Amino acid sequence: MIKLTFVCQDGVTAPDLMDLVRAYSPHVVEEEGAPLLAVEPQDLGDGFAVTIDYAGKTWSAEQADASIDPIVRRRHYKRFVKRTVYFVLKELTEVTLPYGSLTGIRPTKLYYDLLSEGYDPKAQLRDYFDVTPQKIELIEDIVAAQKGIYKVDLDRYDQFANIPVCPTRCAYCSFIAQVYGSVKKQIPLYADNVAKEVGDFFDLGVARRAIYVGGGTPTAIPAVELDKILAAFRAKGEEFTVEAGRPETLTKEMVDVMLSRGVTRVSVNPQTFKQATLAKIGRAHTVDDVLRAYDLVRDTPLDVNMDLIAMLPDESMDDFAHSVEKAIELGTANITVHSLSIKRGSTLNLMGYDNALDNSLALRMSEYAYHRLKEAGYVPYYMYRQKNTEGRLENVGYTRKGHACTYNVDIMEETHSIHASGAGAISKRVFDEEGRIERLAEIKEVKGFNERVEELRAKKRVFFA
Ligand code: SF4
After folding, report:
1. Residue whose CA is at the smallest distance from ligand 1 atom 7
2. Atom of ligand 1 nearest to the CA of 269
3. Which of 116, 239, 307, 463 is in Cβ range 3.0-4.6 Å of 269 for a Cys bridge?
4. How much is the pLDDT for 357?
5. For the CA of 172, the nearest atom of ligand 1
């Protein structure tokens, strides 16, 4: 383990470099009074240079760069400085990170960017960013699976509504999800308000591509309230997903409501098929609840997604493999494999849980899921990375052929504007093929949203004007 305090002469690149230092935890620890890792980057006009000093040793690097566009130039500059720091940390620790110097949350977006900039993405990922062959294979599989779905389209929008309410709070949760009991009285008004906001979409006069209702757990609210929101979308055969993540909330009545409003896809999330773990992570449901919920939807036309999490507390490789097997056996259209991300606001973090940072186990679980799911007929079709993810890995959505969720691809690759409604929802507007994006966030809590909904609707009208 090496200890350092970190300083960068260029304030713009410092946060990016901090992500890299954190990605190297626990092999690199930032500690007050430890030797300084000093990074001094320079834009030379026809290229970039950087000098790095640490504990009496100096590294220098240079790279030619002829780019003129200031945004592209800045991007190249950051990549170069980050890459150089990465190779210094790699030398000091003798540890290679699966994603090399990439700390961004969307490796596939980088792949498309590299392609549009005229590079060979595979060679760049391997030689410039030091991404491992396994992760390059994953990225390339995803790009291949996105053929026919991936498309920057400025004229068609996706539509999203957020219901940030859950029956109880999971121990790893860092979302602004409120417990249903604490906002119960607000929910009828909330459903009316979200329905109004959803209806505003039709004033934009744009075509719609896909609909997604997420949370929280949308099925944590009464079916009659959920129905108001779903009806407001006036779905006409588009892909239409509703997250019913917590299986104990899914009832026959809910399923009937969804089917009557044109829903085509639902998420029922076991996270693990090990009962003891469910109790540890504060999921107030059982493995049997998952099976019961799945029984309600398995013979309907709904595509089902199941989320699993790798690196849950005290789970072994066998536990995780059992969960993957179980999901395969149930035969759902999609299986999404997350790497546990312990965020600051979560109970697990407050409990001091850090999975003992067994990065090699995290990597083995991720590789196991990739190979086993492919063997069982699934392909990876979208991915994203989160900060604080165990093993600095990724979350990957797998699908059976022909069942990929368009909305998931759109949101990860940022190819479509999104009209989003409800507390905590973030609307997104994509302005050009180069991917200039603006975002508009709503109030995060249900009560505050109810109080200020008219102001939020007005702001959104201006945003999308
Ligand atoms: S179901 Fe999801 S949003 Fe709800 S408490 Fe658990 S992790 Fe948080």
Report:
1. 173
2. 1
3. 307
4. 56
5. 7
88 and 171 share one domain = no
- 314-366 pLDDT per residue, tens: 899 999 999 999 999 999 999 999 988 777 667 777 666 665 456 788 889 99
Same domain (yes/no): 203, 296: yes
Residues of the chain with confidence (pLDDT) below 70: 10-12, 344-345, 350-358, 387-392, 435
**pLDDT reported for residue 7:** 73
Within 8 A by CB and 6+ apart from 342, the residues are 172, 348, 349, 353, 354, 355, 388, 390
Residue 340 Cβ inside 6 Å of ligand 1? The answer reads: no
| Domain assignment present for 458 | no
Would you say residue 369 lies in a domain?
yes
Of 95, 118, 137, the residue at which a domain comes to its end is: 95
Q: How far is the CA of 5 from the centre of ligand 1 (A)?
A: 35
In this structure, is residue 377 part of a structural domain?
yes
Same domain? For 260 and 358 the reply is: yes
| Contact predicate 391/339, CB 8 Å | yes
Q: How far is the CA of 265 from the centre of ligand 1 (A)?
A: 19
Write the single-letter amino acid at 87.
F
Buried (b) or exposed (e) across 266-279, using 16+ Cβ within 10 A?
bbbbbbbbbeebbe
Closest ligand 1 atom to the C-alpha of 168?
A: 5
The pLDDT value given to residue 391: 57
Q: Is 173 in the pocket of ligand 1 (CB under 6 A)?
A: yes
Last residue of a domain, one of 95, 128, 144: 95
- The total domain count for the chain is 2
pLDDT at residue 11, as a whole number? 63
- Same domain, yes or no, for 255 and 393? yes
Structural domain of 284: 156-449
CA of 215, closest atom in ligand 1: 3
pLDDT at position 267 is 96
According to DSSP, residue 271 is labeled B
C-alpha to C-alpha distance for 118 and 113, rounded to whole angstroms: 9
